[in-house]
Amino acid sequence: MKAKVKVPKKKMKFSVYMKRYWQLYAMLALPLIYLFIFKYLPMVYVQIAFKKYSIVQSVWTLPLAKKHGFEYFIKAFSNNDFRYALRNTLTLNLLDLIFGFPAPIIFALLLNELCFQRYKKVVQTITYMPHFLSWVIIYSLALQLLTPETGFINMLVEALGGTSIPFLNEPTHWIGSYISFGIWQNFGWGSIIYLAAISGINPELYEAAAVDGAGRFRKMWHITLPGIKPTIVVLLIMNLGNILGGGFDRPFAFQNNLVMKVADVIATYVYRVGIKGLQFSLTTAVGLFQSVVGVFFLLMANWLSRKLGERGIW
After folding, report:
1. Whole-model pTM?
2. pLDDT digits (tens, 9 = 90+) for 89-114
3. 271 with 252: CB under 8 angstroms?
4. Which domains, and CATH codes, for the chain?
């Protein structure tokens, strides 16, 4: 038998390649320019965390802070307000992860089982809508529903013979309200990704399971969940990377003086101390610490997922 001789493929010339596909690179150029200007270029100013900031001096000529540049890191960790903000950020984000992360998964699984397509679309539209409301509007709704004297829910509780519940004025109840409204705003929107992943599962698997006598719950447990498992892992890793992050709008909108000991998070601390208090070096140090910890959690979660046999992010 004659051995097959592999004919090497001719490489396309760079000029020919670019002439054929230049539109794709032109489309990619705009987001790359955006990332460079607004994401990478500002990283130059991270060095403010290690220097004594002055608005009249260039960042390159600023003098190094005391204690080999770590003065503001030490100052932050010795500050009680920062420690409380760090504790609150971890607590609220962990509760969001525990209760909020499974919500869109469960909702997508239930929605996938609906037979009537028109009803399914109506439910999807209703649950997506809160995502487009700002937290200021959502907090206004919370005030109308949950205030002790004039809130609809408390008025209903009192009409039934109970006592009003301080949903927004007592720390424990405030945390429950904060987490509940977060789930309500995001679970419908978050289910889009899982529904897209479910639509990519081979329908023949469900048909084979039906032939074997499997019911809906068995199909969900043995076909749907394993089918969307890679998507769940990737989103879980990304959420773990943001465990010390979180937005500013939500905690700032829900804060009030009665619950500040549980409501003040790193984002609001940076706003209050850095922007309003003009302590830019201190809050840059806090932000840098926050980012480094976030990257650490992201890398650890990705490493663990790969160890457990999942793909991870990379």
Report:
1. 0.84
2. 999 999 999 999 999 999 999 998 88
3. yes
4. 47-307 (1.10.3720.10)
